[in-house]
Amino acid sequence: NAGVTQTPKFRVLKTGQSMTLLCAQDMNHEYMYWYRQDPGMGLRLIHYSVGEGTTAKGEVPDGYNVSRLKKQNFLLGLESAAPSQTSVYFCASSPRKLNGYTFGSGTRLTVV
Amino acid sequence: AQSVTQPDIHITVSEGASLELRCNYSYGATPYLFWYVQSPGQGLQLLLKYFSGDTLVQGIKGFEAEFKRSQSSFNLRKPSVHWSDAAEYFCAVRGGTSYGKLTFGQGTILTVHP
């Protein structure tokens, strides 16, 4: 049981470049989330999805886009990376709203 | 809007000593509360959760937490800390119609001295 898998684990981008982070879960969870983690700020919600084909904005959505074309996958895109997007990104999933999350191991992104 | 405050950024304890990590939340109705632990370079692991019922909840790795509505608190405790407990701990709250969205505190880093 793989749980939640994030790819890639590490990435360095130049300012202005684009990239897509992939999150895949094999638990048939309905809800999926993208968070970013920065020192001293905990985890902040970027975007989330309550089902296939649906997405919504979280607390810090600017500069990011997401898609959930398949139930098991949740993609996070950076169209034009900025140094302020240097962070560790975590994907999580949940079977229903009253449960805790299952987290991926994270993607460490550096924008130079 | 819901929020979580963890007043202690960094706590140091000796191995074998007791531990209490503080968490205060803000939410208008009955909250759903969680504690997560993160080891360096790892994702977050769920330690325990409170939804309703008994206000003292037991979790994994010997941790427990007590929900106190009057104090808006959900403090995490462990009677005897092990060196492997060194990690960062996050308190989180979910409430309302937010489709399961968790709001996290800033985290508390635990250092354990031998």
Q: What structural class do helix, strand and pairing data of chain B support?
A: mainly beta
Strands of chain B, total number = 12
Note the overall shape of chain B. globular
Terminal-residue CA separation of chain B: 41 Å
Largest sheet of chain A: 7 strands, mixed
> Uncertain segments of chain B of ≥5 residues (pLDDT<50)?
none
Helix fraction of chain B? under 10%
H/I helix tally of chain B: 0
Number of DSSP strand runs of chain A: 11
Gap between N and C termini of chain A, in Å? 36 Å
Largest sheet of chain B: 6 strands, mixed
Q: Helical stretch count of chain A? A: 0
Structure description:
Chain A has 112 residues and is mainly beta. Chain A has no helices and eleven strands. Chain A has strands spanning 4-7, 10-13, 19-25, 31-37, 43-51, 54-57, 64-67, 73-78, 87-94, 102-103, 107-111. In chain A, a hairpin with a 7-residue loop joins strand 9 (87-94) and strand 10. Chain A is globular and about 35 Å long. In chain A, 35% of the residues are buried. The mean pLDDT of chain A is 93. With 114 residues, chain B is mainly beta. Helices cover 0% and strands 51% of the residues of chain B. Chain B has no helices and twelve strands. In chain B, strand 5 (32-38) and strand 6 form a beta hairpin. Chains A and B meet through strand 4, strand 5 and strand 9 of A and strand 5, strand 6 and strand 11 of B.
